[in-house]
Write a structure and sequence with these properties.
The protein is α+β, with helices and mostly antiparallel strands and 174 residues long. It has a domain of 117 residues. The chain has 7 helices and 4 strands; from the N terminus they run αβββαβααααα. A 4-stranded antiparallel β-sheet has the order 1-2-3-4. A hairpin with a 4-residue loop joins strand 2 and strand 3. Helix 1 packs antiparallel against helix 4, helix 1 runs antiparallel to helix 7 and helix 4 runs antiparallel to helix 6. The protein is elongated and about 60 Å long.
Length: 174
């Protein structure tokens, strides 16, 4: 692949941290309750902005668990629960990336290649967030969800899974 083996670890950590900053889903909704809303869903939180309301009162932030609890008993509950599963996968990736960054030599001694582990976790997160987006569409969430971060998660995961780690004899393919 196009990534040099000696930079694979840095790329794995960087793409994981970058993924935390890219919203996996953006949705603009108008005409609901007489207003317009922008939902920006990051892997670990959702920011909802209500247009026409002063900034401090118009912004609401929720984590996946509280957002799913808010949807309890409604048609969108499953979509938010699936988001929670994706957030858990992403938290695992984030934890692995921090350990890999702080204790690289120890992480390189794991029975599983940490670069491929992060690739699998990011790819899995992307697949789960794609399912959550699909559920938002099919369960009647108003507006059109744009799965921006899903594309990046799938791309980052795919790249990390295809990095040739044998170039320097560091680790053979699983």
């Amino acid at each position: 692949m196009w990534v040099r083996s000696e930079y694979a670890g840095e790329l794995a950590v960087l793409t994981t941290w970058l993924s935390a900053l890219i919203p996996w889903n953006l949705t603009y909704v108008s005409g609901v309750a007489g207003g317009a809303f922008l939902f920006v869903r990051f892997p670990l939180l959702q920011v909802r902005y209500n247009f026409g309301v002063p900034l401090a009162a118009g912004v609401a932030v929720a984590d996946p668990l509280s957002a799913a609890a808010f949807q309890r008993g409604r048609g969108l509950e499953l979509a938010y629960q699936v988001w929670g599963v994706g957030a858990a996968l992403f938290l695992a990736a984030l934890a692995v990336s921090v350990v890999y960054y702080r204790r690289e030599s120890w992480a390189e001694s794991w029975p599983v290649d940490p670069v491929r582990l992060l690739g699998a976790l990011l790819l899995g997160t992307g697949v789960v967030f794609a399912a959550a987006t699909s559920l938002l569409l099919s369960r009647g969430f108003p507006g059109l969800p744009i799965p921006l971060g899903v594309v990046f998660l799938l791309l980052f995961g795919g790249v990390l899974l295809t990095v040739d780690r044998t170039e320097r004899g560091e680790r053979s393919s699983p």
